[in-house]
Amino acid sequence: MPALAVAPIELGQAHAERLDDVIVQLWEELAEDREVACPVCGGEMEPVYSARSQPVGGRCKHCGALLG
Length: 68
Fold this sequence. Notes:
Blueprint: H1 19-31, E1 36-37, E2 44-49, E3 55-60, E4 66-67
Antiparallel strand pairs: 1-2, 2-3, 3-4
């Protein structure tokens, strides 16, 4: 089976943080109804809603990555 080549993710200052710290920060910003940088491609991630008024996750406008 061929290996999957994946480009490294540039997280800027977050490179020294643990992954769970980065995800928690994304959740907090999405919960405030703000667009955040996608941790996969750096594109804009917007909040995703269900029947409630609070976001249930996020979706990247560029690559389609989901956080939820």
